Amino acid sequence: MAEGAGTQPRVMFQTAGKEEEEEDPPYRRLGKLTVKYNRKDLQRRLDIEEWIDGQLHLLFDCEEEDIPELEIDIDVLLELPDADQRSKLQELLQECGKPKDDFINGLLYRIKGLRKMSGTLRK
């Protein structure tokens, strides 16, 4: 797709009615891809995920590899009604012995207004 490290990805469109050189395929006309989510949305999501990671280190008071198998999926939370988001987080964090209300309140505040990502852009 991209020819060099600094080039942007492009989509090739077939042109109708124009004759191309024989060695070039008929789909050489280039067009830019559009992205459904802008950089600001993606950066905000990344910032939230990094904040979650840091807070889990504090809550469990251990290194990353020692944190229990715990997956906080922002998109799953966004699909839930506001009342269920808190109970879902409390359920996920039930193994944590420290007070978790500040973390839950902070996360719910940070995800307000965040858009759910489509399945193709998620991990």
Give a nutshell description of this structure.
This protein is mostly helical and 123 residues long. It is built from four helices and two strands, in the order E-E-H-H-H-H. It folds into two domains: 1-34, no CATH class; 39-111, DNA polymerase, domain 1, CATH 1.10.150.
Could you characterize what this model shows?
This protein has 123 residues and is mostly helical. The protein has two domains: 1-34, no CATH class; 39-111, DNA polymerase, domain 1. Helix content is 41%, strand content 7%. It contains four helices and two strands. The chain has helices spanning 39-60, 74-79, 82-92, 101-111; strands at residues 10-13, 29-32. Strands 1-2 form a two-stranded antiparallel ribbon. Helix 1 packs antiparallel against helix 4 (101-111). The longest helix is centred in the middle third of the chain and has 22 residues, at 39-60. It is elongated. Keywords: Phosphoprotein, Protein phosphatase inhibitor. Belongs to the PP1 inhibitor family. One of its GO terms (molecular function) is protein serine/threonine phosphatase inhibitor activity. It comes from Conger conger (Conger eel). Residues 1-26 are annotated as: Disordered.
Features:
CPI-17_sf, 4 helices, 2 domains, mainly alpha, 123 residues, DNA polymerase, domain 1, Protein phosphatase 1 regulatory subunit 14B, single chain, 2 strands, phosphoprotein, two-stranded antiparallel ribbon, CPI-17
